[in-house]
Amino acid sequence: MGADDDAEESAYTFQCAKCGWETTGDRRPVACEVCGGRMLANPSERTR
Question: Which SUPFAM superfamilies does the record associate with it (predicted)?
Fold first, then answer.
């Protein structure tokens, strides 16, 4: 009954523009933890 986000840990996926490292969270990280590059927001991979 409406259990859409039962196993959803966070709302967004972010990917580094430089090295491609990915992380998830509610807000965009300031910089990549791996190389210090800029983090880009990716659309959620939720398929309907």
Answer: Rubredoxin-like
As a whole number, mean pLDDT of residues 10-19 equals 90
pTM listed for this prediction: 0.65
- Give kind and range of the element (H or E) at residue 15: strand 12-16
Please enumerate in sequence order all residues whose Cβ is within 8 A of that of 8, keeping only pairs 6 or more positions apart, or say none: 46
Torsion of CA 46, 9, 24, 47, to 10 degrees: 0
For the sheet with 12-16, list strands across it. Answer: 22-25, 12-16, 39-42
Of 1, 4, 36, the residue nearest 17 (C-alpha): 36
**Residue 15: pLDDT over 60:** yes
